[in-house]
């Protein structure tokens, strides 16, 4: 499976999960953001589905790569917030939440390669 199709599939799956199990994502939303966490959860789900659509179509793939980079950067603060909130959780949960942070870097880089047409 090509990188753009793999990324599109992953984003579509995650986007769908935002609607199927929104409560799981509500806790990732920093409280400092205006409005309800659920609104942000649904909004980020829509964004993931839209980016997946851009990546899935060859004619919009480069724009999809750039949009994916922006999306991954936009959700990074939520991942930091989640890791911070898990500071008193079990060692396993803490390890998972902190491990997610550096994993964003290769995802951002992969999206950049898609945007560049590689």
Mean pLDDT comes to 93
Shape: globular
| Broad structural category | mainly alpha
Strand content: under 5%
Query: What is the alpha-carbon Rg in Å?
Result: 15 Å
The end-to-end span amounts to: 14 Å
In short:
The protein is mainly alpha-helical and 118 residues long. It contains 5 helices and no strands. Helix 4 packs antiparallel against helix 5.
Task: Provide structural commentary.
The protein is mainly alpha-helical. The chain has helices spanning 3-20, 22-26, 37-56, 61-85, 91-115. Helix 4 (61-85) packs antiparallel against helix 5 (91-115). The protein is globular, with a radius of gyration of 15 Å. It starts with a helix and ends with a helix.
Secondary structure topology:
Layout: H1 3-20, H2 22-26, H3 37-56, H4 61-85, H5 91-115
List keywords for this structure.
mainly alpha, globular, 118 residues
